[in-house]
Design goal:
By secondary structure, the chain is of the alpha/beta class. It contains eleven helices and twelve strands. The chain has helices spanning 5-17, 20-27, 31-45, 62-90, 105-119, 132-141, 186-189, 202-212, 226-234, 283-298, 307-310, and strands spanning 50-53, 57-60, 94-101, 123-130, 146-150, 158-166, 169-173, 193-197, 218-223, 239-242, 257-260, 269-276.
Length: 311
């Protein structure tokens, strides 16, 4: 399409005012720009749209009057589209696409969705659970608007809102000999077989904790599923490191687990809400972000009954 919506707007303004000067003033543009735009329309369609009168301004030709009706409809429809698009961004009514890191989803997302639905019933949340690299790709591609995840090797194209900090801990079967200790040394744990959470960025994060203590973990099993990890720990002589808050002290098959803090000072894992930097969030996303801040501020991250005892 060789003509533009701007040219049509200029033509309609000139037709309605009957004057290039008056039309230019109403549009806040220079008169030569207006004349050039109308001339380009006439050249493109091969029509003379106006008769120019030196003292009496403009008058529409018969072709111009017919063209004006179509141009008005197109301009009005474009304004309706623009208004509708603005309302989509400003309205709470509609669908919000949310991503959530695989291990955080079962711990937080059900309660987040339930509470947010009560606070903002006009918004429907559709979510996707995925590893961090998939969430980043979804955010940058616009597949989801916000994502609940850990702050691990995130792209500098993403903005981050800090929601909570969770220190990593050692997870053991209640029957494990090391479970009797109140705190565990990474150098001691490195001598024990480990179950590693084998997700992109997560595996590197947990290995880096050992490397910072000058040791290498002894990985026996790898799994991408947290409940599988908890089951392997509960039914064997292995341990694991996790930072995901736990809501249960038992594995799926009912065996008891214990969490123990580490002797070495380790920076806590940061739970964040990520979005694309410089992208304007919809009101739905803004409302969800505000609810997430409220949610994480007012709840204890589910560390369990032995949380204070082990501290």
């Amino acid at each position: 399409m060789a003509f533009t919506l701007k040219q049509l707007r200029y033509f309609v303004a000139a037709a309605e005012t009957g004057s290039l000067t008056a039309a230019a003033e109403s549009l806040h543009i220079a008169q030569p720009s207006l004349s050039a735009a109308i001339g380009q329309l006439e050249e493109h369609f091969g029509l003379q749209l106006f008769l120019r009168h030196r003292a009496r301004g403009l008058s529409l030709t018969p072709s111009g009057r017919d063209f004006l009706a179509d141009a008005r409809r197109l301009v009005d429809h474009a304004e309706e589209i623009e208004l509708g698009a603005r309302n989509l961004g400003e309205s709470l009514e509609g669908v919000l696409q949310v991503g959530c890191f695989t291990t955080l989803a079962p711990v937080f997302l059900p309660r987040l969705l339930q509470g947010f639905a009560k606070d903002t019933p006009a918004t429907t949340v559709e979510f996707r659970e995925a590893p961090l690299d998939v969430l980043q790709a979804d955010l940058l591609a616009g597949t989801c608007e916000v994502a609940l995840t850990y702050d691990l090797d995130l792209s500098n194209r993403l903005d981050k809102v800090l929601l909570a900090e969770v220190p990593p801990y050692a997870l053991l079967a209640a029957s494990h000999p090391l479970a009797k200790r109140r705190r565990l040394d990474l150098r001691v744990l490195a001598q024990e077989p480990m179950v590693l959470l084998d997700l992109p960025h997560s595996r590197e994060y947990f290995r880096s904790i050992f490397l910072a203590a000058g040791v290498e973990p002894n990985v026996r099993h790898r799994t991408r599923n947290v409940e599988m990890l908890r089951g392997l720990v509960a039914n064997g002589d292995c341990f694991s490191l996790l930072s995901v808050p736990a809501l249960s002290e038992r594995s799926y098959d009912g065996r008891p687990l214990v969490r123990r803090p580490l002797v070495q000072p380790v920076p806590p894992a940061q739970i964040i809400l990520a979005s694309v930097r410089d992208a304007r969030l919809s009101r739905r996303a803004e409302a969800f972000a505000a609810y997430c801040l409220h949610f994480f501020r007012d709840q204890p991250l589910g560390q369990g009954r032995d949380r204070n005892r082990d501290a």
